[in-house]
Amino acid sequence: MRGASAAALGLPALVRGQNLNSKLQIAVIGVGGRGAGNLAEAASQGDAIVALCDVNENNLKSAAGKHKEAKTYIDFRVMYGELKDYDAVVVSTAEHTHALATLPALKARKHVYCEKPLTHNVREARLIREAAKAAKVATQMGTQIHATSNYRRVVELVQGGAIGDVTEVHVWVSRAWGLQTPEEAARNGDIVTVQGRPAGAETPPDYFHWDLFLGPAAERPFHSVYFPGPKWYRWWDFGSGTMSDLGSHWNDLPFWALKLDAPLTIEAAGPPPHAELAPASMSATYEYGARGTMPPCRLTWHQGSMKPKIWEEKGIPQWGDGCLFIGSKGMLLADYGKHVLLPEDKFRDFKRQAPSIEESIGHHAEWLRACKTGAPTTCHFEYSGALTEANHLGNVAYRCGKKLVWDAAALKATNAPEADAFLARQYRKGWEI
Ligand SMILES: NC(=O)c1ccc[n+]([C@@H]2O[C@H](COP(=O)([O-])OP(=O)(O)OC[C@H]3O[C@@H](n4cnc5c(N)ncnc54)[C@H](O)[C@@H]3O)[C@@H](O)[C@H]2O)c1
After folding, report:
1. Mutational pocket test of ligand 1: of 52, 74, 93, the residue with most ligand atoms within 8 Å of the beta carbon
2. Which domains does the chain have, with CATH numbers?
3. Residue 319 Cα, ligand 1 centroid: separation in angstroms?
4. C-alpha neighbours within 13 Å on the C-beta side of residue 218
5. Residues having CB within 6 Å of any atom of ligand 1
6. Tens of pLDDT, residues 366-399
7. Whole-angstrom Cα distance, residue 18 to residue 430?
8. Measuring CA to CA, which residue among 168, 158, 116 is closest to residue 285?
9. How far is the CA of 229 from the centre of ligand 1 (A)?
10. For residue 33, how far is its CA from the centre of ligand 1 (angstroms)?
11. pTM of this structure
């Protein structure tokens, strides 16, 4: 880390001997799509961008044009082999390379910001949690909705007892991307229609390194059904479908408000699972045990055409996406930007408590501050790793086609040895973890 000392500048000394005026040296892996925004945020406070890595040379060139001092790479394994003097890494690649791009940094005790979902599968999420714990560095998963005032006010209401004991939660998102009939795909505005792996091959664009994109995934010919992002989200080899994609943002709210961690059981419903493609529509129900004074609760995720019964029966406002907490004294319905206590008549004279959760300085800013001062982040890898494990478990239950009894400590579904195949992945030679 470069920079004048706090004392020399007459500034207050901050924890862990670092200060907010230090300049971080940041490497950024994945600089197109969401990565372009993350790069801009990482550079927004004057820290040095020392390395840029992308398998898409067009995206790399565009990022390098804005950060001329940065070294450029197409293979993050080469970058890690060469780069010694850096403090922090931002990872925004496709999901199946998140863990591979994150672990070397954690092992070298560097700070990491990684996009959601934290990893491609449950085992990788556990490995990253453990590595982050050992590294004791600043970590943050890219669930920026967590930084909103709206989420803070919802957490305060739920934890403050406004709706009593919460025993049931429903989360739903209307996005229907994934395996479905061409008619459904057209009706749902899907970005691509695909029923299985294409038979033919296409030539990858000359600026795109398909083999490096594949990374740990088994070789397969390039095809435009995978590229560009976000087409790859639906393929189990690369992504985890909508369950873990949008679940990262939406299940974050009940996870936070209800202090959820590992579920006891997980059961999913939807069309028959496909070996390679995530479904457009599915649901997953999690049972959680008591947490402190909070009673056991059941959380159900619904995506695509699936909605909670109370929504279908018009018992609540017809929001396209939402999170409904059902408590002993009422209900709370929230989305990213707003929330309402239900039934509205009952809560008309409700006096809201004064805010108690500090506002965020911004999701990326929290992480940059944490890198420099040791201040906490809200979506560090211990919290977001547990959230990611739970989201992936919805997919595991769906693919197994049965209710799983989950032993979180052993990372095993005790009643389903067949789940092992979906909890982890096979790694291509040269890309093992
Ligand atoms: N937080 C949010 O709101 C949000 C929004 C969109 C996407 N995301 C997440 O961001 C990640 C990227 O999604 P996207 O939609 O931007 O995908 P994308 O495919 O559009 O972009 C990914 C970028 O990473 C590059 N890349 C892919 N593999 C790489 C590798 N092995 N090494 C280096 N670079 C590599 C790609 O070339 C591309 O530039 C995903 O995890 C996604 O879930 C988060």
Report:
1. 93
2. 15-146 (3.40.50.720), 149-181+230-357+390-423 (3.30.360.10)
3. 28
4. 6
5. 29-35, 53-56, 59, 76, 92-95, 97, 115-116, 142, 144, 212-213, 215, 228-230, 245
6. 999 999 999 999 999 999 999 999 999 999 999 9
7. 37
8. 168
9. 7
10. 6
11. 0.96
